[in-house]
Amino acid sequence: MDDYTSRVQEAETLRKSGKVEQATQYFQALWEQRPNARVGAGWIYCLRKQEILAEAIAVAQTVAARFPEDEWVNSEFAWCLYYHELKPAIDHNDLGKAVHFAKKIRSLRASELIIKRVTFEMIKFFKGKGDWELVLQWCSFIEPDALSSDRGGIGSHEIMSALEQWYYAKLKAQVNLQQWEQALSTAFAAVSAFPKNDDFQRWKAQARDGTGDRAGAIEDLEALLKHRGSSTKWYILQDLATLKHQTGNLEAAIRIGSKAALAPGEDKAKVNLFLFLAKLGLGMKNVEFA
Question: Of the four listed, 14, 63, 106, 168, which is most buried by Cβ atoms within 10 Å?
Fold first, then answer.
């Protein structure tokens, strides 16, 4: 083993043990002596872990220019851009900057991990803005077969798996855009993969109604309300009451809508429900109820 290889191993040992400040000096000297992708990536990594991000990006640009095909180099470059540029842009609601750096990161030949992270960040960003067209666009950048269906979380608090989050974003966007045929197809796949997710079941019913199958939508909602405590979810009850009204069953609409009004949930979230019930009351000449 020559002296250079031995010093690379020493640098790697320091890096892996968390002694990144000391390792940075090793990697920088090794790069100046004999530039290579492994040393360059290690140098960027150590700078990033010390949160010296501007310098890390400058080094990453130099290293990536020499080794544009190396995945580790590109991944380190991507993580630096993520923390130094993309995250602050999202935090400051800077749409143009966020899109620019998200696309820049996606253009790098980086690891699947960072590419997925960035894509989900943009999906979340556009969901928050209610820009459903762009939510769908960024969902299209991910292949669902590559996503895990395993849930995470700490203790009793679970969070949706990556695949479940992807279905949630895509299906909600299609429903909001009233792309009913596409939404129904997505809903069937989402319900098949995650049968315990009430939102997927609910959106499936909405999509069925949107495609003209109102009876099927009512059947779906009635089945959903029979199990898993869904009967206490006021918004599912509201959906069913609305469909009953649209079929001319006013008595059922008022009964189910009233149950929705009494179910747990903040009154301010139920404004449209209360308005719906008031209109039903007036339509039935029941002014006191209205």
Answer: 63
